[in-house]
């Protein structure tokens, strides 16, 4: 493979005396002679100018489209991760890496000017880990590497801020010890407002309900993990601090919980942009008004408006928020073409990682904004510490906690949604959002001993018994099954306006809903 994206395949006869193990030692010299022969023919016979990219070759690196493979391992996600972590990618010394450098430069222009915040770094690392796991049948290695990189990133940012180039006002040793303990359990991210992906998301990517993914991971880990037991108990005590209860959050993300959490680095920018959109502060009212005005000319708007009115929900003229009781019906591309959706899309363009970092690198002009984000990041670490100490204070020796481990995770997810949005919906429950995770619906039995009759999992789970006793390593691979099962990811749709054609799939969805309703 050369670095001009040309692949050469040479078919050579191999005798019994010259096996592959003997030929492998002379592979480099044979490849060098072949490239030299091609260069001489091109320059002397054809008179072509040969560049360094065209004559450099490697038997370990394979570049295919956007993917880079090194000795069979995908490196496309690794290069994206490196481009965010390294301060200056151009200072790398060693082998000739022009093609890899070009790919990184195309993905992130002016990389030296981008200074990621804590949340942006963690999101990038988790996305890289999921993208790497999707290309492999074995997902354990990408999961471990991803969590270790996140662990080191958190430990570094707890001591020193890349945004302001100054140390935080904390004791380094104390924070390091706490973060190392905190970060070894990815399940803590549900409460810490940190985008850490649970283990099941690497194995089964595409499940539409992220809350049941977290809870099922905790439920499976309660047998051997003390941290999972404490989290599972803490989530069932209904002692969680509630947030402001803005129903607009459910339109943007139907899986959201109304929990109090620390603010992100982009939060200081959003109120500033909201100042210019005071005309329609209520996105739900604007959304319903847009649908009502479009009923005369748009058949899709008419059917959606009728569907929302005929739904068996306690609707009131002064309570438009109650229409979000089925948030999946509203969280579609239709919302993005409304006035409220356009406002949120415009704000999202200035709150994403790339735009906010370019704004923050404009010298002293935005020093006050950088200082405010620095304080928010420090408060984020303090919030993690406070929540972590609360969870660690749970005494696992109490006998009444044993019954909490057997509660269905799907039931807990429905309870959490009802509890956190209770005041906003005035006692009504959300529908069509809580979905059980496949790992909770089925169980593989490795031994010949069946489940005890008193185990409540027999009622709701399908148990698969293996014909013969196998090694537990089979659980580390997904076999021949494709990792994507479910809907497409929506990581890059936050700042994008969608145009709905007449034959759009969402129109067919609403047509089906209208037909079923009648």
TrEMBL record:
Pfam assignment, any one: Mononeg_RNA_pol
Signal peptide bounds: none
PROSITE patterns tied to this protein: RDRP_SSRNA_NEG_NONSEG (PS50526)
GO molecular function terms listed in the Swiss-Prot or TrEMBL record: ATP binding; mRNA 5'-cap (guanine-N7-)-methyltransferase activity; RNA-directed RNA polymerase activity
Domain RdRp catalytic: 1-72
Transmembrane segments: none
Name of the molecule in the record: Mononegavirales RNA dependent RNA polymerase
The organism of origin for this protein: Popillia japonica (Japanese beetle)
């Amino acid at each position: 493979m050369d670095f001009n994206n040309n692949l050469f395949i040479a078919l050579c006869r191999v005798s019994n005396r010259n096996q592959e193990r003997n030929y492998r030692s002379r592979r480099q010299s044979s490849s060098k002679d072949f490239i030299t022969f091609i260069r001489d023919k091109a320059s002397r016979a054809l008179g072509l100018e040969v560049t360094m990219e065209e004559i450099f070759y490697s038997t370990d690196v394979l570049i295919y489209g956007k993917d880079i493979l090194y000795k069979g391992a995908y490196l496309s996600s690794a290069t994206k991760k490196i481009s965010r972590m390294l301060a200056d990618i151009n200072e790398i010394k060693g082998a000739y890496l022009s093609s890899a450098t070009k790919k990184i430069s195309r993905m992130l222009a002016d990389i030296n000017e981008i200074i990621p915040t804590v949340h942006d770094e963690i999101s990038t690392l988790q996305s890289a880990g999921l993208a790497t796991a999707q290309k492999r049948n074995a997902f354990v290695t990408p999961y471990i590497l991803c969590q270790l990189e996140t662990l080191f990133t958190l430990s570094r940012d707890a001591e020193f801020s890349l945004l302001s180039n100054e140390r935080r006002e904390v004791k380094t040793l104390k924070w390091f010890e706490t973060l190392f303990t905190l970060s070894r359990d990815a399940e803590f991210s549900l409460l810490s407002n940190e985008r850490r992906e649970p283990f099941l998301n690497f194995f089964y990517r595409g499940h539409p309900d992220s809350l049941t993914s977290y809870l099922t991971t905790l439920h499976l880990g309660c047998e051997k993990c003390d941290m999972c037991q404490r989290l599972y108990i803490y989530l069932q005590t209904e002692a969680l601090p509630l947030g402001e209860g803005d129903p607009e959050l459910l339109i943007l993300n139907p899986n959201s919980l109304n929990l109090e959490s620390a603010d992100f680095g982009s939060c200081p920018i959003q109120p500033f942009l909201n100042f210019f959109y005071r005309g329609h502060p209520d996105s739900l009212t604007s959304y319903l008004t847009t649908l009502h005005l479009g009923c005369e000319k748009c058949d899709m708007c008419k059917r959606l408006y009728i569907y929302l009115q005929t739904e068996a929900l306690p609707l009131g003229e002064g309570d438009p928020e109650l229409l979000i009781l089925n948030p999946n019906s509203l969280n579609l591309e239709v919302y993005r073409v409304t006035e409220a959706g356009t406002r949120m899309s415009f704000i999202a363009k200035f709150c994403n990682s790339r735009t906010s970092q370019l704004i923050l690198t404009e010298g002293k002009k935005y020093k006050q904004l950088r200082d405010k984000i620095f304080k928010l990041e420090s408060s984020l670490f303090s919030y993690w510490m406070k929540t972590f100490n609360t969870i660690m204070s749970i005494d696992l020796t109490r006998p009444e906690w044993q019954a909490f481990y057997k509660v269905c995770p799907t039931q807990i997810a429905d309870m959490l949604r009802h509890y956190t949005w209770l005041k906003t919906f005035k006692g009504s429950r959300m529908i069509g959002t809580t979905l059980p995770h496949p790992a909770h619906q089925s169980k593989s039995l490795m031994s010949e001993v069946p489940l005890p009759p008193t185990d409540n999992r027999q009622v709701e789970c399908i148990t698969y018994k293996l014909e013969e006793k196998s090694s537990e390593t089979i659980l580390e691979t997904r076999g021949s099954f494709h990792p994507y099962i479910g809907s497409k990811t929506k990581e890059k749709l936050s700042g994008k306006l969608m145009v709905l054609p007449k034959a759009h799939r969402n129109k067919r969805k609403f047509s089906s809903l209208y037909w079923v309703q009648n």
